[in-house]
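Review form for a predicted model. The reviewer records the input and the model, then writes brief findings.
Reviewer: anonymous (R2)
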Amino acid sequence: MMSDLRIQKLQFAFKKFFDADEGGAVEKKDFEKTLEKLGWKETDGEEIKNQIWDGFKAADVDGDGQVSTDEWIKMWDLQDTETLPEWNNLFCKVCFHILDKTGDGVIDEEEFLNVHEIFGGTKEEAVDAFQTIAEDKSSLNFDDFSQLFKEFFLSDDIDDPGNYIFGTLNFFKG
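Model under review:
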């Protein structure tokens, strides 16, 4: 059984980043809107986008063409807590690529803040989040980012810095 913290994090990610029309379920059009909002370009690769969507929609156990919040949580409850599913690893790479606007192989504070403000987070929250995840560094490389991404999705520890990867800790109701 998953912890309340992890359920709250997953619900937050689902609502904030995937359910673009806020309809309570994610269809492919929601997923595509999310990528577009992040800054995805067609040149970033249709095949990768489809691989991520195919992995995401595997949670659609009732086969209605959309993933509900309950299906999303159930998928993660069945997932082992040591490794991310391949589609989520690809999504992590895409997020890193999109956040790294300058293409220098690292995400600095300004790049981090820009994306989180697009999704309605406050600058103050995003600054605090970046300082927490960067741990006194001026930027995050891909290895740093992927570890934080993994912590967000798989960890039950409230003190893990990865809980801040999406720019806030306001999802925690504990």
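Findings: The helical segments are 4-18, 28-38, 46-57, 69-78, 86-99, 109-118, 123-134, 142-154.
Further findings: The two ends are 17 Å apart (CA to CA).
Recommendation: see findings above.
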